[in-house]
Amino acid sequence: MNESLVKECEQIVDSEFCEVQEQIKLLHEERKKLLDALRQLEMANLEAEASGIHDDVYQLRNHKYSSLGRGKYSECSTSASSDDKQEFEDISEEDEASFHDTKESFGEPDVGSVLTHFKRRTKLPDPAEKERGVSLWSMIKDNVGKDLTRVCLPVYFNEPISSLQKCFEDLEYSYLLDQAYEYGKSGKSLLRALNVAAFAVSGYASTEGRHCKPFNPLLGETYEADFPEKGIRFFSEKVSHHPTVIACHCEGKGWKFWGDTNLRSKFWGRSIQLEPVGILTLEFDDGEIFQWSKVTTTIYNILLGKLYCDHHGIMKIRGNRQYSCMLKFKEQSILDRNPHQVNGFVEDVTGKKAATVFGKWNDSLYYVAGDGINKASASLLWKATKAPPNVTRYNFTSFAMTLNELIPGLEEKLPPTDSRLRPDQRHLENGEYEKANEEKQRLERRQRMSRQIQESGWRPRWFEPQGESESYKYTGGYWEARDVKSWDDCPNIFGEFTEEVADCA
Fold it and tell me: What ranges does the record list as Basic and acidic residues composition bias (predicted)?
């Protein structure tokens, strides 16, 4: 081939390539216009579908709250109305979006050198016995449609923490509330509301891969968590057996967090649905209050396929001052390639959108100021910690591994009702499965007497009911009793018992 023919061929190829390149540019521009149009439509849908955020029952103002007691305030329902349950449209993904990490301003606060620090454990004890497999279907096939809190399962289906301790897992990222307090003090009310929203989402991160059931506490069982490195003290108690109600109270740097929950569960053959009933309240020292309820949790494929859990529904975070927040936990579909999505926004008392939030409940949450949705300018609110290297079948986070630990000097300070002293739970943690199962069956005999004990006049030791609202308030005094080891009125609920002892409890 001569040189002129080669050059002619090159020119033809270059010409064809230029035409294709121009067509690609045009398609790229059209795609950008389409995405912009979709974003505008999505935001319009978000605003329209969330119009229920202005319901009068939730419009809490300073002058209204000043005439209400805490008990009345906690009566406010935060469940979604039928209008709010319309589908939020998902915020579309953008390729290679560059997020701005605001770690410098959102970092965990220094709790001070005056606090006592010690090294908490990073792994569970090595199991003493080899675990045996048990068929879940053989245990629950006769309980379809029933409340699973009343179904007695072998210890093999439990994880070595109680529901009281699992409540404390919601406080793993308590530094978000410390930040929220500081932002409010400096007049940055929007950042306070955003950090509260991030905290409400962060409590779900530890549920990823957690397929075992926490122990159902005995009536009067308690749990304390004193974490000076976090600057928080937490306490919880099982205050009712029928219905099962757990109450908790936590104090941090400039804030208090409390609530009670009644978890209703149903088994539907292929899935288990958990409906939380109760209100969580967060109060800052300056009087600002936020309230919300948890969303529905469903565990899928309990018989066949890969077991997984999902959280779905609308969460309303009601503030009594300037801002409130609406979050949509998208229900995962069978072929969903982008699960665990959370989308929503913060708006002021006039209904004007102040910020858009988006992310995943098992990973992270971001926000964009104003009513825009440009992900390239998004800032990080919260990021989940990485999974620990010492993973067990329970898939505990590093934080969860510390919850049942008896650190040096702690046992002699605890009341005899503390979950750490529960023998079946301790045996399970140590991998002593036969002993754990024997103790679980023994304690469940006492559990079956709980309704009789409650109806005979039993009352919680550290919480009291608030009128007709069916909510409970911490009465105080636990930490003071702990300082002097005054546990005379705390029975040894994990010890040996007879039916006569139960009648006198």
Answer: 97-106, 412-447
For 37-48, write each residue's pLDDT tens digit.
Answer: 555 554 444 444
| Whole-angstrom distance, CA of residue 64 vs CA of residue 110 | 36
CB atoms within 10 A of CB 404: 22
pTM for this prediction? 0.76
Is 84 inside any structural domain?
no
Q: Is 111 contained in some domain?
A: no
Judge whether 378 and 391 are in contact, CB under 8 Å.
no
Distance CA 307, CA 352 (A): 41
Tokens of 237: 């108690």
Residue found under tokens 């409906």: 275
Say how many CA atoms lie within 13 Å of 279 toward its Cβ.
Answer: 27
For 179-206, the pLDDT digits (tens) are 999 999 999 999 999 999 999 999 999 9
In a domain, 251, yes or no: yes
- The CATH number that applies at residue 361 is 2.40.160.120
Q: Which of 171, 220, 226 is nearest to 409 (CA)?
A: 226
Residues 6+ apart with CB under 8 A from 6: none
Domain assignment present for residue 382? The answer is yes
Task: To the nearest 10°, report the CA torsion of 385, 391, 396, 397.
Answer: -10
Is residue 364 within 8 A of residue 354, CB to CB? The reply is no
d(CA 329, CA 310): 9
Residue numbers of the domain that contains 310: 136-331+338-484
